[in-house]
């Protein structure tokens, strides 16, 4: 499978797209280079959530390897995203070209670094790595396969994926999530949420025995996308997704004017729940400046 990234990762083809060497090579020849920024952390998260899923061709019993090829220093936190993959037993090989940051490559890559980190001065020199990298990859797959626990089930669906996401008790600042766990309890859950019209995704990691979460400190009157991913030792199951909007903040009501004089008036209103201050604006009608 292959994804390219800049500020927005893009899947070029999934693991299940091609079944022969010639098909893969032809796809490579047709590939168009994607220029732009270097958000490596976002790219690694994309690979985890989109490319290493059963519906993208990831087989539960197969070893999971990610080869990161980059020519620059990441503009976001690549280390945190890489650690999430490594904690799931996914092995990362980091290959730097030109302006890549070698210290970052070593942070992102799996141990032992002498086998998983490579750095060359320019793109044509990548060809010098092919033979060694191929031997290392094949050896690592064989080593890990020999240690693999044979009783991991191959089927997915309800076996590995939660169902029935419910979002309730929605307020202007919070919401409550519940879901039904899969037949095989996961090691952990990863809950990702962010405003649908843009915003930095936030995440919470829960123990696999828990199947509910209270999200707090949200923005009022905002539509949120919520995803729940079950995490196992060697795979991430299918995620649950939901959309809901927080409530608007309550408003003051029943504005009344009294005690009018030539230069003053008294205003009164019913309080807005949760308000700590009020801002009062007034202007001379019809188009005077606000005071």
UniProtKB/TrEMBL annotation:
* A matching Pfam family: VWA
Boundaries of every Fibronectin type-III domain copy:
161-250
Q: SUPFAM superfamilies from the entry?
A: Fibronectin type III, vWA-like
Q: Which UniProt keywords are listed?
A: Extracellular matrix, Secreted
- CDD domains documented for this protein: FN3 (cd00063)
The record's subcellular location field reads: Secreted, Extracellular space, Extracellular matrix
Principal place of residence: secreted
UniProt domain VWFA: residue ranges: 1-133
Is the Secreted keyword given for this protein?
A: yes
PROSITE patterns registered for this protein in UniProt: FN3 (PS50853), VWFA (PS50234)
Q: Which PANTHER family match?
A: COLLAGEN ALPHA, COLLAGEN ALPHA-1(XX) CHAIN
Q: What is this protein called?
A: COKA1 protein
């Amino acid at each position: 499978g292959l994804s390219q990234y800049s500020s927005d990762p893009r899947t070029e083809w999934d693991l299940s797209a091609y079944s022969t060497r010639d098909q893969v090579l032809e796809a490579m020849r047709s590939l168009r280079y994607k220029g732009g920024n270097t958000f490596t952390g976002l790219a690694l998260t994309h690979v985890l959530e989109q490319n290493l899923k059963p519906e993208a061709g990831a087989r539960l019993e197969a070893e999971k390897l990610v080869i990161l090829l980059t020519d620059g220093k990441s503009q976001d936190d690549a280390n945190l995203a890489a650690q999430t993959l490594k904690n799931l037993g996914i092995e990362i090989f980091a290959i730097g070209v030109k302006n890549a940051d070698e210290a970052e490559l070593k942070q992102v890559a799996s141990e032992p670094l002498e086998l998983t980190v490579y750095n060359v001065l320019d793109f044509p020199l990548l060809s010098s790595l092919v033979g060694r990298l191929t031997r290392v990859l094949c050896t690592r797959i064989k080593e890990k396969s020999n240690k693999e626990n044979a009783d991991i089930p191959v089927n997915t669906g309800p076996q590995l994926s939660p169902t029935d996401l419910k979002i309730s008790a929605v307020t202007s600042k919070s919401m409550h999530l519940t879901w039904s766990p899969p037949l095989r309890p996961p090691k952990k859950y990863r809950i990702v949420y962010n405003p649908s019209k843009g915003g930095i995704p936030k995440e919470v990691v829960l123990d696999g025995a828990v199947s509910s979460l209270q999200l707090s400190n949200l923005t009022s009157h905002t539509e949120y996308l919520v995803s729940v991913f079950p995490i196992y030792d060697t795979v991430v199951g299918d995620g649950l997704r939901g959309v809901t909007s927080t409530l608007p903040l309550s408003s003051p009501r029943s504005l009344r004017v009294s005690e009018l004089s030539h230069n003053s008036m008294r205003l009164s209103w019913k309080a807005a729940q949760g308000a700590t201050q009020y801002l009062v604006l007034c202007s001379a009608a019809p188009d005077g400046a606000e005071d």
